[in-house]
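Quick log. Single chain, no ligands specified.
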Amino acid sequence: MQSVVMPQDKNSHIIHTIKEYGKSLLGFIRKRVKNDADAEDILQDVWYQFSNVLNTEPIEQTSAWLYRVARNKILDKHKKHTETLLDDMAGNDEDGDEDTLDLRDLLLTEARTPETEYIKNIFWEELFVALDELPEQQRQVFVWHELDDIPFEEIAKRTGENVNTLVSRKRYAVLHLRKRLKQLYVEINNY
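-> predicted structure:
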């Protein structure tokens, strides 16, 4: 028999969870979005979803659940920039490599089938894993320019860095991401 959580117990559990995970979860989100306001909005969505889920089902691993929901909310926010991102990642390789990554056909299809949604979700998950592998400065420039659509000139003002330096960092990030996501592309095509 499943125990019923009383409203007072639920509220104290929510408050305890917010105190325990609030700062680290906000830091996790901030690293992946354009500004503090977006991070706080996403965090608020996570807490809202957390309080709703507590009404219907128990959560076995609270930390894992919170970070998974936060990552999914971040992914949802960034999905609107898919076309711009794919233009850069699947474009012509300046190094003359003819075997370039082309995920556009897979990810920009208008058909919304379970298979295409699954592929899109895998792409975004793998993209964020690959982004986490980058040095902080390369990751930040890539996220700001590609996902948040901030021009290099504005990034230069924010960071005090030269635009050419920022372009170079983004290029290294793109090369790394192409290499990492190429395997995903091969696996999807062989599926």
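The radius of gyration is 19 Å.
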